[in-house]
Specification:
- The protein is elongated.
- The strands form four sheets. The chain has a six-stranded antiparallel β-sheet. Strands 4-1-16-5 form a four-stranded antiparallel β-sheet. The chain has a four-stranded antiparallel β-sheet with strand order 8-9-10-11, with no helix packed on it.
- The protein is an alpha+beta fold.
- The protein is 24% helix and 34% strand.
Length: 259
């Protein structure tokens, strides 16, 4: 699951679309191009409208000039976290524009301001420091600290695990939870019966869970938590689709539609 967005083309507004076989058609209060229906809902009319819009109404698929996968939600949360760490006063329109759930829109006049803020982010050498759990042997990132998720990334019937600025941790599912294991640098060894032995500083802890960072391959034997400086380039995965969406919004005068 994640955040997607699009910007409508101007074919309907500029009279370039083929006539809709049913009508009237217009933008609703939320910014969606829709069939304007009076009275009771008419499913047949609605189906005819969507067949037109997603068919040969204009050269653009679904009448969308630009359609983008912005990011999965973890990526969105990491970006929001970076904006807060950098100081939301530096990128106020962007910080306010990113939604916390699917739905809503960004008007074209605000998209123009967001576009300038995205350019500023792309050229920033250091935005924030990010906490990561890495495989010591390869340097590959296994987990990242997402504040909105309280660092949690692994869940099971009797445990929950994650990473935060104080290290990797495993908690039980009691209320309140009890810490079963915590370390900044540690080893892990898979045991029979879906159990893992964690070692750190001379201590050994066995937990009923799958190994950390397994992902269908042999899991890392040694892991460590590090803090790494992140630049604007590190957030290109979300900055670039947002830039394309905002540029299309400015060009058409139509809002960015979050979905």
């Amino acid at each position: 699951m994640g955040l997607d967005a699009f910007v409508y083309c101007r074919c309907w507004q500029d009279g370039l679309a083929t006539p809709c076989p049913i009508g009237p058609v217009g933008y609703d209060e939320d910014g969606w191009l829709a069939l304007v229906q009076a009275g009771e809902y008419d499913g047949a009319a609605d189906n005819a409208f969507y067949a037109w819009m997603t068919g040969d109404a204009c050269p653009h698929r679904h009448m969308e000039l630009v359609s983008e996968r912005v990011s999965n939600w973890a990526g969105v949360r990491l970006f929001q976290q970076a904006l807060r760490a950098a100081g939301e006063h530096r990128f106020p329109t962007l910080a306010a524009a990113l939604p916390d759930a699917n739905g809503g829109s960004l008007p074209a006049d605000r998209a123009a301001v967001v576009l300038a803020e995205l350019d500023a982010i792309a050229g920033t050498d250091r935005i924030t420091d990010e906490v990561e759990l890495i495989d010591e042997a390869t340097g590959a990132v296994v987990m990242q600290y997402v504040e909105a998720y309280r660092g949690l990334f692994m869940f099971g019937p009797g445990f929950q695990a994650g990473v935060d600025p104080d290290g990797f941790f495993v908690l039980d599912r009691a209320d309140p939870p009890v810490t079963l294991f915590r370390a900044v640098r540690f080893g892990q060894r898979p045991l029979p019966g879906d159990r893992v032995e964690f070692t750190a500083g001379g201590t050994r802890t066995t937990v009923a869970m799958r190994p950390v960072g397994e992902h269908g391959e042999p899991p890392p034997e040694r892991l460590a938590v590090r803090t790494r400086s992140r630049s604007g380039e590190d957030f290109a995965y979300i900055v670039e689709p947002l830039r394309r969406l905002c540029a299309a919004s400015v060009a058409t005068g139509n809002p960015v539609m979050w979905c």
